[in-house]
């Protein structure tokens, strides 16, 4: 599970921000809400993370950092743009400062690609934590040069970080027993300045890279990085190709929207079309006439379902957009349910519906706020002093006790 994020000089975040969401050992366990960083680890992290703050405060920047790291690890080799699809902080001093991103997460340390069941992984002794770090250097307004890239690990999450691979500003790559480079010298010498080690080596059947690439692909996001089409037709096309997802979606639509009896995907001359059967209506309704809230829910549903079924992280920006406040806690509860979420998938989301705070523990809440210089600051509610579990988080947040609220007038 993902438990730490570091961001510097990335979009609205100028100064280093560290978000460490590990839960203190003295905190009573809430097993439905908290999960071990890796099986049998004593360190825990929340399964659902909600980011609150005013418009433009940096909430989406936090999710974008996670999305970009996932994209860079797995997809950067295919990128054809003049620069990488990210931005540094917009002031003169930051123009030539490096962008720094890092994540830490727990899991299986074996990168051999051996097929293991969930039970075998849980029983494995080869578990621990990974740390991936990436430095990018802006040049002449473009971000296209990797000056540092490294993956490290700690067995059982203890001791010093051990190198898996490391790459320097001259593109010299060092491997390890876990990440052997024997036989790949010619490929390593040709790694582009704007592509990841993993994305490059995986194309040449480097086994450890293929395993890491697969892990990077388990981040399901509605934030675009290097794609321009995540629109309605793309969603309908995906549903047309995945009937089990449509069946699962219909079960939820019937539970949360009493007006919709069923959604069907039918083939038309122009391609697949979504139609909605409503109680009391003679003719099925097309996608364009369906409620905005229902369409918003359908757009994010496949991302959430994939995370729950396969494990990983769902990054959902503006989860509450056009979705009723009573539905939001229901979606969060899916990640608490061990039957729905057998692999301890995580949900990271941004939202404005402060009423959701009534349904969250303080370990699940992150705030973003922007200072007078346009710099975003990110902090967990765990970092705010004297927050009791019995506090009314909703009332105190709107009262300004925790910060990160709009200043009106």
Report what the structure shows:
This protein is α+β, with helices and mostly antiparallel strands and 409 residues long. The chain folds into two domains: 1-218 and 313-409, no CATH class; 226-310, no CATH class. It is 24% helix and 27% strand. The chain has ten helices and 18 strands. It has helices at residues 59-75, 118-123, 185-188, 197-202, 207-216, 232-241, 243-256, 292-310, 327-334, 393-398; strands spanning 2-8, 17-20, 34-36, 44-46, 48-52, 99-108, 127-139, 142-155, 162-167, 173-174, 219-221, 260-268, 271-278, 285-286, 313-316, 346-350, 365-370, 376-380. The strands form four sheets. Strands 2-1-6-7-8-9-10 form a seven-stranded antiparallel sheet, covered by helices on one side. β1 and β2 form a beta hairpin. The chain is globular. The two termini are 41 Å apart. This is ATPase AAA-type core domain-containing protein. Residues 50-77, 275-358 form the ATPase AAA-type core domain. It comes from Aminobacter ciceronei. InterPro entries: ATPase_AAA_core, P-loop_NTPase. Pfam families: AAA_21 (PF13304).
Keywords:
ATPase AAA-type core domain-containing protein; ATPase_AAA_core; 18 strands; P-loop_NTPase; 2 domains; globular; 409 residues; 27% strand; 6-stranded mixed β-sheet; 24% helix; alpha+beta; 7-stranded antiparallel β-sheet
Going across the major beta sheet, what is the strand order?
Answer: 2-1-6-7-8-9-10
Residue runs with pLDDT of under 50 for 5 or more positions: none
Structural class call reads alpha+beta
Question: What integer value in Å does the Rg equal?
Answer: 22 Å
Percent of residues in helical segments? 10-25%
Overall outline? globular
Count, helices: 10
Protein name: ATPase AAA-type core domain-containing protein
InterPro entries: ATPase_AAA_core, P-loop_NTPase
């Amino acid at each position: 599970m993902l438990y730490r994020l570091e961001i510097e000089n990335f979009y609205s975040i100028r100064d280093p921000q560290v978000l460490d969401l590990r839960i203190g050992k003295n905190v009573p366990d809430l097993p439905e809400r908290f999960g071990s960083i890796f099986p049998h680890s004593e360190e825990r992290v929340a399964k659902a993370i909600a980011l609150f703050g005013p418009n433009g405060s940096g909430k989406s920047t936090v999710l974008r950092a996670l999305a970009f790291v996932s994209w860079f690890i797995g997809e950067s080799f295919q990128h054809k743009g003049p620069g990488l699809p990210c931005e540094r902080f917009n002031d003169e001093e930051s123009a030539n400062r490096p962008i720094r991103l890092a994540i830490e997460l727990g899991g299986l340390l074996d990168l051999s690609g051996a097929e293991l069941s969930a039970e075998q992984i849980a029983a494995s002794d080869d578990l621990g934590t990974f740390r991936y770090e990436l430095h990018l250097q802006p040049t002449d307004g473009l971000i296209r040069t990797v000056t540092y890239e490294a993956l490290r690990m700690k067995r059982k999450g203890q001791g010093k970080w051990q190198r898996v691979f490391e790459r320097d500003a001259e593109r010299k790559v060092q491997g390890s027993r876990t990440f052997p480079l024997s036989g790949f010298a010619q490929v390593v010498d040709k790694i582009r300045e704007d592509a990841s080690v993993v994305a490059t080596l995986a194309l040449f059947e480097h086994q450890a890279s293929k395993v890491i690439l697969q892990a990077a692909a388990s981040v399901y996001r509605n934030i675009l990085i290097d794609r321009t089409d995540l629109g309605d037709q793309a969603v309908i096309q995906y549903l047309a190709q995945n009937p089990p997802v449509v069946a699962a979606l219909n079960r939820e639509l019937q539970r949360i929207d009493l007006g919709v009896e069923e959604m069907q995907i039918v083939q038309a001359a122009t391609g697949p079309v979504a139609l909605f059967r409503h109680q009391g209506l003679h003719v099925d309704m097309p996608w364009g006439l369906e409620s905005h809230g229902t369409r918003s829910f359908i757009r994010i549903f496949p991302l959430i379902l994939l995370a729950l079924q396969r494990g990983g992280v769902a990054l959902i920006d503006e989860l509450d957009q056009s979705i009723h406040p009573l539905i939001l806690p229901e979606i969060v509860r899916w990640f608490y349910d061990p039957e729905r979420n057998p692999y301890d998938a995580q949900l990271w989301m941004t939202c404005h519906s402060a009423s959701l705070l009534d349904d969250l523990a303080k370990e699940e809440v992150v705030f973003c706020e922007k200072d007078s210089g346009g710099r975003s600051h990110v902090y967990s509610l765990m970092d705010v002093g004297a927050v009791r579990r019995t506090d009314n988080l909703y009332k105190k947040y709107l009262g300004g006790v925790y910060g990160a609220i709009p200043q009106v007038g």
